[in-house]
TrEMBL record, chain A:
Its cofactor is Zn(2+). It comes from Rhodamnia argentea. The lineage of its organism: Eukaryota, Viridiplantae, Streptophyta, Embryophyta, Tracheophyta. Gene3D superfamilies: 1.50.10.20. Pfam families: Prenyltrans (PF00432). GO terms for biological process: gametophyte development; root development. This is Geranylgeranyl transferase type-2 subunit beta. Binds 1 zinc ion per subunit. Its EC number is 2.5.1.60. PANTHER family: GERANYLGERANYL TRANSFERASE TYPE BETA SUBUNIT, GERANYLGERANYL TRANSFERASE TYPE-2 SUBUNIT BETA 1-RELATED. Keywords: Metal-binding, Prenyltransferase, Repeat, Transferase, Zinc. It is an enzyme of class 2 (transferase). GO terms for cellular component: Rab-protein geranylgeranyltransferase complex. It comes from the Eukaryota.
UniProtKB/TrEMBL annotation, chain B:
The lineage of its organism: Eukaryota, Viridiplantae, Streptophyta, Embryophyta, Tracheophyta. It comes from Rhodamnia argentea. This is Geranylgeranyl transferase type-2 subunit alpha. PANTHER family: GERANYLGERANYL TRANSFERASE TYPE-2 SUBUNIT ALPHA, PROTEIN FARNESYLTRANSFERASE ALPHA SUBUNIT/RAB GERANYLGERANYL TRANSFERASE ALPHA SUBUNIT. One of its GO terms (molecular function) is Rab geranylgeranyltransferase activity. Its EC number is 2.5.1.60. InterPro entries: Leu-rich_rpt, LRR_dom_sf, Prenyl_trans_a. It catalyses: geranylgeranyl diphosphate + L-cysteinyl-[protein] = S-geranylgeranyl-L-cysteinyl-[protein] + diphosphate. The gene is LOC115749816.
Amino acid sequence: MGELAGDKHVKYILCVEKKKDSFESVVMEHLRLNGAYWGLTTLDLLGKLDTVDSNEVVSWILQCQHESGGFGGNIGHDPHLLYTLSAVQVLALFDKLDVLDLNKVTDYIRSLQNEDGSFSGDVWGEVDTRFSYCAICCLAILKRLDLINVEKAVRYIVSCKTLDGGFGCTPGAESHAGQIFCCVGALAITGSLHHVDKDLLGWWLCERQVKSGGLNGRPEKLADVCYSWWVLSSLIMIDRVHWIDKEKLIKFILDCQDTENGGISDRPDDAVDVFHTYFGVAGLSLLEYPGVKAIDPAYALPVDVVNRIFFGRC
Amino acid sequence: MHGRPRTAPKPEDAAASAAKAQKLRALQSQFLSYHHDRIYTKEALDTSAKLLEINPEYYTAWNYRKLAVEHNVKESESSPESVKSIFDEELKVVENALRQNFKSYGAWHHRKWVLSKGHSSLDHELRLLDRFQKADPRNFHAWNYRRFVAALLGRSVEDELQYTEDLIGNNFSNYSAWHNRSMLLSEILKKKEQESYSQDTISKEYEFVLNALYTDPDDQSGWFYHHWLLDQTSKAKAPLLVSSWPVPGSELVVSGNVSLGDHPLSSFSKVTVALERFPVVLYFNQTVEGVNSSTVAIQCTFVQNEDVTWKPFSPQNSWASKVWVGYLDLSGVDHHSSAPHTVEVKLGHHKGIMSSNGLQLSVPFDLSFRVSVKPLETQSSKDEKLVWEEDKFYACEMPIPCLCYDGISVGNKYEPTTSDWQIGTIAEEISQIRNLLAISDSKIGKITLARLLMAHDVMSSPYATKTVHAEEVLGLYSELMKLDPSHSQYYKDERSLVLLQQLLSSGGTLLKHCFYYGGITSSSTHGPICLRLNNQSISRMGAFDKLLWVQMLDLSDNELHSIEGLEAMQLLHCLNLGRNKLRSFTALDPLRCLKSLKVLNISHNEIGLHSIDTTRYLCSASPLSHNGEVIWHGDDFTPEDADVTNYWEASMVFKSLELTQLDIVGNAVANEKFQSFLLKILPKLQFLDGQNLHRI
């Protein structure tokens, strides 16, 4: 089995950041804050966050903030919960949460909770359990969960449960490993995992592991490195991660590395990107791969960052 | 970037890409300036449309178009035609964007937004969906949109059900269609309450799914649906009390908290608990809510019913649980009189105890037992260390009284909660799946058969006293471990549960695991009775309904990494979890409920060894999961350079216990610093890793 080409991945991430002129990076421009979270968290997990000028990042993040309090995916873009969470997470990585005008951000998040407990992603009203996770995770990191109706938020998430014990985007929608992470994560953060049928969901999730060792996101779909995060983190939160073969999954992730130029792809020999590089490294972290810092399965931040927030020390 | 091959870019490609990028960048900055200046002219709208055609994920442009629609509709308020044409234009832009990327959240939501304004015809929507769903029958955006449109059109559930049938007919491996079918059927079953109708419907579904299973027994889609059907079939109709402590008719002698040397546990009927906290445990076959002093009546001379508070045992704060406990205060009972007191517990005479789907307890239940309080002995002996060594245990020949429900103990009050239809359906499916397995080695088929067989056992014997199929099921799981080694731990866990069920189901097999502990020198009579389930390759604990009476339990030399459910064992006094696979203190969270626990062995586990804690979010009092009862006392005792979580978690578990003996050696966490921390948070501790601390 190959080894983790950590240094190559660090180089790759730093270099993607500089390559702003390729078509790919222009297409992704509107979600640069997500990209920053993926890239910087990867660097932190590989112990190389200090290669980045944190002041530069923080001042750029603040420029992405809208007057409503929410953050856009880049300067000039509209605010949305998806990017507000990334902004808060990246500030947490750098221990710079104090730059935020707390009331402004939390008012924005609170304003997006609907009567039924669900959350809209922004003022335009798209409802999805992904946004429940964003809101709950953000407010928990900012220690202001009391601002929303947690009981209703939980009830809405539970109403999205499906036949396989998983969760979909809205009531009636099909389970999907990414969506399951959001729902299980939100339930974990609110101390509500008793609503999860752990054995049923755990079985469905462990059956996401296919012959190659990789994980897919739904039955009869192809394996993809990103599910190393969505499926694994969910299995860990419900304490069923021993039901998959960890060694085979490690091998699958390592096989998806570009060992020459760095980066990790969805499947072996596909083109790499920051998204999959993050999910690959985060997956290895959850698998306790040596040399990679531990990541918290619910907050999707390094464990030492989470401990710093909630225990006051690492 | 999904599914794109990794190739080194050719120079001419790079140049083309750069040119494309430049064009797109120009478009984007042009768009942003229109957006920021709130310009909604045709030219500006065209720019955003072009942009979205190239990059449908560019969410700000969708927002911009909504603003533009609102603005332009206001401008043209007089003419309904022009309003309609404004909205129709949006539908066109969405369609173009979806052609480029039909997984674009923004595009689908824009379409919903347009339709919900009510100016557009819906006729086209189902046709559009058919096209997309043909191209990708698993696209969940399209399915979500379909549910939205079906609701707007008022399509009947039956029509939509037919649609799933058509898609499954085209390709049985369409899990999305099976999923939608389960949703639609649940709706139908909820609406039509006639039992025969639901039964017919479910029976037909079994036939329908069987075809898919035969087509490719290794495809998962149909099997998950089959599993869901089994769940619909075997759901017990109403909750049933399957076990309790004390057991009806038992005669108990209770003594207050005394030391081990007083050999208080030396008979099945002698119990040592704090007199003010004598537990009555109720164990149901499913999660129930509403257990309180108005649904459960306690009659005895020394306790007022209203003073008893019932508490659900659930690892987290919730109002529903399978297991409930109420504590009686015996401290006022006359110790000098040996006359037993009768305690009557009556439940289910008033409505209120019900399952999560609103079904009431199936039958009223009266349980009566007698209890006498033994005078507290004066310091008869010095405290002695308990040693979990093989030669300290000897076989227990005492006849075992009734320790759990076996149908006799509950007398003739038992009414069947399962119908002939249920048992018949399960039996039919067992034979169908056996037939299928005769021609295929489908692993998921074997799992299904194992589950069907267990469901059959539970239905025919609700108190789990007969495990007719246990041997066959154990065999199936052993086979599966070989057939599908990647998931062997799953099968091992399932196997452990069946094994425990089997071991504990009859007095005969149980007696083989009951031993006297003979390690107490000061004892002149029998030592305490210990249930020894050590060295059984158990990877998961279960069958707790059969273990409520246990005061001393040896689970050492197994493969446990969790003790979920152990909180029900309220009498537990001594527990050996040595040489298992416990990974963290949070895994010991259930111990926090065991107020009688004094002796604990967690030596030679994996606490402190792992960087990822798999029970971090399952424990009841973590600041990470906002349960509201977090108080962190240990900071003063925690060394500067230590990993704060281990210290925090240890203090969380142990602060509610009064352990006198703890073995923790052989865990990565157990260094000298940690040991001195333990001494501080466990003031009653007398032995740590076998060392007498000479505290008295």
